[in-house]
Prior knowledge:
A: alpha/beta, 5-stranded mixed sheet, 7 strands, globular, B: mainly beta
Amino acid sequence: MSNRWLGRVRLAIVTAAAVAVAGVAPRSAAAQSGGFVVVVNASNPATSISKGDLSKLFTKKARSWPGGTAAMPVDLAAGNPVRDAFTEKVHGKSTRAIGSYWQQQIFSGREVPPPERKSDDEVLDYVRSNPGAVGYVASGTRLGGGVKTLTVTD
Amino acid sequence: MSNSLRTAVASAIAVTALSALAGTAAAQGTDKLSIHGYLTQGYAISDSALIEGIPKEGTTDYRRAALLMRYATSDNDNFVLQIAHRRLGNSPSMQFEPDVKVDWAFYEHTFQKADTRLRVGKAPIPFGIYNETRYVGTQLPFYRAPYAMYHEGIYTSETVDGLTLMQPIFTGSAWAMEANGYAGSFSYLDFITTRVSPTAYAYVGQRERASSTLGGSLWLSTPIDGLRFGGGANRYTVQNAFFQPGKYSFDGWNGAVDAKFERVLLRSEYRRLMAHKLMDYRGWYMQGGVALTQKLSLNGQAERANYIVQPIRAVTAGYTSSLVRDDAAGISYAFTPSLLLKLEGHQTKDHNLESVLAPTAAPVKGKYFISSLSLVF
Lengths: 154, 377
């Protein structure tokens, strides 16, 4: 078998492997619209927050609340339409751009993304248990005690 | 089945298996422990000389992989460990490369009031746009970070053993800044072409230790989201390097323009590194990319570097070498943000070759191609 032919075979194998796995990446990147409310622990004195400040907390560019309490953002799981809506409305960027930002942060050893919770109830439990926590859940979710909403301003 | 074909098949299977996980791959760990990783598997072929380990017959022995673990011992304290594996095909520098190595191992404390981060240990050097993520395929328009700026295999270190300090400044402002400083030592691989007979040359290499390292960088954000400017400088000392008895101080500085928007990427960096009475290195690159769709991007790159070597008594006459002259075009397809396929072609006319070549010989023309699949989780 000639070297040139071998080279073509190898290139074809690597490329075919890549194409083959395209089908196993099922998650749609298209964000679906979905309303959300921002929630914090009931002990948090804040009543409102700007989109810019909220974005800084979730990208960990800001690490504490004005009173000095450490901020503990929590995300819904990737692919959740409420998370997609939050990302586009609060960060003003696509989920792809925010994903790239976090790859940069992770692999430069600087920071890791906020922890993820699979459901609104798990987000609420996290916020209820941590005084500095901030999260978001779908509009209309029953909040229960120990949690309150923040008004998000432009 | 030949060894090379067996390697090709094994690599393809590894890529397929790992890529199959991409749809479900997610960072592992708890809220305290996070585990991330990346893999880039390439197939590369050159039309002429050995370039960056790429032979004429092609190679699939071309990859980078790492596992990054971060453990938070408190809100402000983290321990970070990265273990890595890298193959550069037939590059002679591979004889110095272990199969698995500890890339990073550092402790990080954040002084919360000022948001100052202090790292102690073996940590990535905050140098240029790419140094800290130079092997993360999904973050790069091409297989490697531009060689003229960052090198690979030889004359480069991604890390410093010592202290690293990071300080955000004016964080609330549109003109926010980030200042970085580092001090310590690092090692790098020294490779030179030396005359072994009146007509023949050979490559020889050895690891060097750079001590008394001191460096810093400053990044300035702008009101245009995605546009920033950066610069830095560093100094280090090398004692009794290859054929260079004595102590040499190296002084370097660099500048960068970094524009990364939703669909357009424009980047350029310049670097100069000088050692008094020894050498003067000047390199730069320009890089551009456009996302045609959410998944498909076109990228282009030009990089150049010249290297002026002063005469070293009884070893070499002084000379100027066109070390890097590389123009590249590529296409990338993101199946997901975590799985990226790249196809790229490069044209060179320089001395950045690993076939033995006299430093004063005319630059060699060549072409090489790399296809690679990158996965992160």
